[in-house]
Amino acid sequence: MLSIGDIIFNNTKLILAPMDDVTDLPFRTICKELGADITVSEFIAADALIRDVEKTKQKILSGKNENPFGIQLFGNEKESMCKAAQIIESYQPDFIDINWGCPARKIASKGAGSGMLKNIPLLLEITKEIIKSVHLPVTVKTRLGYDENNKCIVELCEQLQDIGVKAISIHGRTKSQMFKGESDWTLIGKVKANPNMEIPIIGNGDINSAQKAYQMREFHKVDAIMIGRAAIGNPWIFKECRQKLDYNTNMQTPTIEERVRICKKHLLLTLEHKGEGVGLLEMRKHYKPYFKGINEFKPYRIKLLTTNDVNELMDTLDEINCKFN
Questions:
Q1: How far apart are CA 212 and CA 209, in angstroms?
Q2: I need a surface site. Which of 18, 34, 100, 109 has the fewest CB within 10 A?
Q3: Would you call 234 helix, strand, or coil by DSSP?
Q4: Distance between CA 21 and CA 42 in Å, rounded?
């Protein structure tokens, strides 16, 4: 049976993708409540963790009922990545995930994230040394390749498995594509169909509905589906996908009352975790997605984005419930 350590893949797992400045503890808690089987931290910079940066340390804290939970690490130097992995191990996550997939210029231009897809020998060397330096299972998140002419993912996955990687998440774009165009799952499917592959293969990219998750599972037989941007403002997508994958039936879209309830809970968790000053500011990126598609919502959105008083925010959310329910 396929597994990552103690995590058994006895069905198609639904995983919340690591997203910088998004998948913090409050958001992961919400997604877990609404059906995410596995959650992963924000990106953790190896150098910042070694320097004991407080903000970075806060990113790797997990919730009481969050397991299975992984911490994702990025960097470009073997020594610092191994040392950071050992620090992460002391926090006792279920696995350590190595980020060889982020296409952001500030990361990839330094040879970290998907920038490392330009140097596969070094990518493999660093990954192998990390695996040797810790006892936890090590997984990898990556992309199809560096660019259209260098889609190395099928061979790379075999190489990663050979050095001891326990699961691989594949985003169906190259580094050069960033998030443009459509995610291409055909090579993800080819990796999964490779008879030499014995570890879980996790598909990622453009899963924005339960129907899409169902199709990708049926067509490409992946062991798990990772959902990223589509969960922002719509954490219910995990419940919807679970019902579709297990029963091939559809859920009703969340009501305004439910959206308000979850938004309130998200706000309170963020204030508890980050304090009022930071929490109020960081929640602002979530309000618009939570209430996407509501006509004549602009005055309420402005209130949510400009109010610095928690009670006023709660009153505004109650108004939204009364007005649009």
A1: 5
A2: 109
A3: coil
A4: 7
Cβ atoms < 10 Å from Cβ of 99: 24
Pairing state between β 3-4 and 168-171? unpaired
Tell me the CA end-to-end span of the chain in Å, nearest whole number: 46
Catalytic site residue 102?
A: yes
Where residue 264 sits, what CATH number does that domain have? 1.10.1200
Report whether 117 contacts 142 (CB < 8 A). Answer: yes
Q: Is the pTM above the cut of 0.90?
A: yes
Q: Among residues 67, 66, 60, which one has the least CA distance to residue 5?
A: 67
Between CA 224 and CA 198 the distance in angstroms is 14
Which of 247, 264, 296 is at the close of a domain?
A: 247
Please tell me which residue in 31, 82, 102, 263 is annotated as part of the active site.
Answer: 102
Residue 128's identity, in one-letter code, is K
129-179 residue pLDDT tens: 999 999 999 999 999 999 999 999 999 999 999 999 999 999 999 999 999
